[in-house]
Specification:
By secondary structure, the protein is mainly alpha-helical. The chain is built from 5 helices and 2 strands; from the N terminus they run H-H-H-E-H-H-E. The longest helix has 11 residues, at 3-13. The protein is globular, with a radius of gyration of 15 Å. Residues 1-19 form the signal peptide.
Length: 131
Amino acid sequence: MQPSTIFAILSVLAPFAAAHCCHVINENNECRDGSWGTPCCGQGGCNIFCCNCDGGCRSDNRKLASRATIDGAADADAFSVADVDGTGNLTLAQYTQYMGATEDDEIYVNWFKQHDKNGDGVVTPDEVRLN
């Protein structure tokens, strides 16, 4: 692999190296504190990617949770990685692929629909957060 190719890959992935996302830890949608993910495991509101959650992640380690918003991924950075065709619109297929879910996973489909505020079938950068 060429050094320029490696550099390009690392520059795309670098913003996520310190990213703190609040995903479920198993197929039962369980969070680290034993609660159920909805689908995210954030203390407060999260972006559509379950990252950059207000108050950090629900966990037994409250110090780590309080730092999560400082180390959180920027909404725009996660959106640009998930938007693989660069259209500025995130489809359900792109979203579920990014999240590692299937397009018929009811939890992620409902989460996507909540963020698709105007009901046009895509999520735009201004729809990434619910609040």
